[in-house]
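Fold these two proteins, one after the other.
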Amino acid sequence: VQLQASGGGAVQDGGSLRLSCTVSGGTSDYAVTAWFRQAPGKEREFVAGITWMTHSTKYADSVMGRFTISRDKSSNTAYLQMNSLKPDDTAVYYCAVKPSGWGSFDEQARYVGWGHGTQVTVSS
C-alpha cells in the first residue's frame, strides 16, 4: 500500500489548512485511515481517525471541534480539515492505514502503512 499526503503549509494563528491522503494498492484491505502528528522534541501522537465503510470517527481531545476527518471512497482519499489552528498544532502530520478491527484508532503499532509526513506550521 502507498500513501501520498499533501496539503501542509504555513499559516497564522486561527488559520485553516486541509490535508489530503491518497491511498493506492490494496485499498480494500485497509479500512481505517488516521492522522498522527509529531512536533519537535515530542512523541508522535494520534490526531483523528475514520473507518471507510461506516464513517465512524475519533478525535484527540486537543483537536475536537476544530479538526474534521473525512473520506472520499471514489478517490481513495482521506482529508483532515483543520480550522482555528494554533501554534501548538505545529508538527509534521502523517497519515496511516490499517485493517478494520486491528485495535483502536490511536494504537500506532497497529497501522501497517504510513505516508511521508507533511509539515504544518502555525505562527502566532
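Now the second one:
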Amino acid sequence: QVQLVESGGGLVQAGGSLRLSCAASGRTYTMGWFCQAPGKEREFVAGISWSGSTTRYADSVKGRFTISRDNAKKTVYLQMNSLKPEDTAVYYCAASEVQRPVGTYSYARSYDYWGQGTQVTVSS
C-alpha cells in the first residue's frame, strides 16, 4: 500500500504561481494530478511516466502547468503558472503500481492510489 501526501496548495492572485508536491511512501510508476472544483467531477490535469520522459496535459493547462518527478525523493511536482480563477479546485495526486500506456494517463481508473488533496484558490 502506497500513501500519497500532497502539499503546496494555497491562495494566490490570478497570474500567480504555485508548486504542488506529492510525496509517495513507496515506489510508483505512472503518476498524475487531477482536480475537482465544487459541483464538478474530478478531472485530469497532468500525467507523467516513471522515467519522466513522457508527459500529458489537459488542454486547459497546456503551456501553463508542468509536471515533473524526482524518483530519488519519490516525489512528483506540479508547477502551476499564470493561474486563473477557473483553476480553483482541490488538486489530487494519483499513482499507479504499474507503468500505464500514455493514452490512459487521463483516466482515473488508471491509478491505484490517491492522496487526500490540497486546495488551490485563485482570486481575481
